[in-house]
Amino acid sequence: WAFRPLVYGLCFLHAVVLERRKYGKIGWNVSYDFNESDFNISRRLLALYLTKAHENGDEMIPWGSLKYLIGDAMYGGRVSDD
After folding, report:
1. What is the dihedral of CA 53, 56, 57, 59, to 10 degrees?
2. DSSP conformational letter for 82
3. C-alpha dist (Å) from residue 42 to 63, 67, 75
4. How far lies 56's CA from each of 2, 4, 67, 78, in Å?
5. pLDDT number for residue 79
6. In this structure, are residues 30 and 82 in contact, taking their beta carbons and an 8 Å threshold?
7. Cα angle 49-33-22, degrees, rounded to a multiple of 5
8. What sections of 1-82 are H helices per DSSP?
9. Rounded distance between C-alpha atoms, residue 35 and residue 39, angstroms
10. Phi, psi angles (nearest 5°) of residue 57
């Protein structure tokens, strides 16, 4: 029920991150190596967490966990403030 819209959002995030690489220093201050493995593992995490939430009968999507794992760890873990 929620997987397809969330994958769409993940695809949009991944596309924006990859597109910003084309602009060099204007897009990112450092050249980051984002690739398909970032998207694939994030999609698998999304499926895993939604499956577990459904199996446990949770009515809420675990937004905090997904935001941290995908946004901060998978994609944000490569970004530095230097």
Report:
1. -30
2. -
3. 13, 10, 9
4. 15, 20, 20, 32
5. 63
6. yes
7. 110
8. 3-21, 36-55, 63-66
9. 7
10. 75, 20
Question: What value does the CA radius of gyration of the chain take, rounded to a whole number of Å?
Answer: 14
Location of structure tokens 């995030």:
13
Place of tokens 């499926």: 47
CA dist., res. 7 & res. 46, Å (int): 8
What's the pTM value of the predicted model, to 2 decimals? 0.80
Question: How far is the C-alpha of 81 from the C-alpha of 61, rounded, in Å?
Answer: 31
Q: In this predicted model, what pLDDT tens digit does every residue of 16-40 receive, in sequence order?
A: 888 887 777 776 667 777 889 889 9
